Fold this sequence. Notes:
The protein has a four-stranded antiparallel sheet, with no helix packed on it. A four-stranded parallel sheet has the order 7-8-9-10. Helix 3 (120-132) packs parallel to helix 4 and helix 5 runs parallel beside helix 6. It starts with a strand and ends with a strand. The chain is 35% helix and 18% strand. A hairpin with a 2-residue loop joins strand 1 and strand 2. With 361 residues, it is α/β, with parallel strands linked by helices.
Amino acid sequence: ARIFVEDSQITRIDGLRGxxxxxxxxxxxxxxxxxxxxxxASHFDSDGKxxxxxxxxxxxxxxxxxxxxxxxxxxxxxxxxxxxxxxLDRELRDWIARGVIPGPHILTSISPITNETGxxxxxxxxxxxxxxxxxxVITVFASQDIHHGGNRALSNKQIEAACSxxxxxxxxxxxxxxxxxxxxxxxxxxxxxxxxxxxxxESVLQLFTExxxxxxxxxxxxxxxxxxxxxxxxxxxxxxxxxYLLMEMAHQTSLDTFVEAATxxxxxxxxxxxxxxxxxxxxxxxxxxxxxDGGQDAMEAIISATSRAAESLRLDKxxxxxxxxxxxxxxxxxxxxxxxxxxxxxxxVMKDGRVYLNLSR
Length: 361
């Protein structure tokens, strides 16, 4: 087939042979991938260790690390990402949108809602402040980070305040939640998506289907990245031997839960890699893990990173390869339906009709 692109839009697809600008006939073409959970500002410092606030770093250096991560992500086939909360994201988003810096489309929460934000009234005010500052989504930490134990961080009332105020502002809410109790509260509060999740109860999986809440679990790349780069994290801030033991337990729970959820077709699982320092550009490894370790159907995995991810982010013109949709394309050598590791072999990337990678020659 031939795919016709004019400016930034797909205008026509036909089955006729004819002249082409880019011959991708021996590759597998898909819509540009969408990662709904990354941290573009996360990086290793010049000494190889994960960034510490005690390290003297200029604003320019911090932004350049984020630019580097954005570029790696785009070249890896991800034309859209949701970056989950750094003040750098807003300017990076806007400069990339101008077309002068190569990177994926970015949606950002700018900064998250946490237990330090305050009571329900203060949380509502904080949500409004982020909306006025140009946030695309509201990120909420209803649970602690896994390295801090993953325990409940917000009350049901606080969770409800964050998500209902986000709706009032016309924004989505992406909520970090772990364990049955907190995940159930997040779903019942009408929040848009659950990040991480790890619910260890079949009843919670049923709640996902009943409320049609999007779920962005993480079972591969994030954990593997922490292990691969352990010496670069260990001993800094929250990263201790004890926290690594907690992470190992969470890893097994997330895998067990995903294996069960993958058999339930009504759960809206979307792709999110949780890419941090060391993982940018390797986002597709999470998709490989979901298929090889989690038992997810390969086409379901690809849909979770294309049309369903676009739906979850309310991106009406993304995630589908058809006339009228944005010309975001990625092509790989091999067939990922036969071997999901083909997603590692990115040969062509187009974003908004502009080619950023072409190794098809």
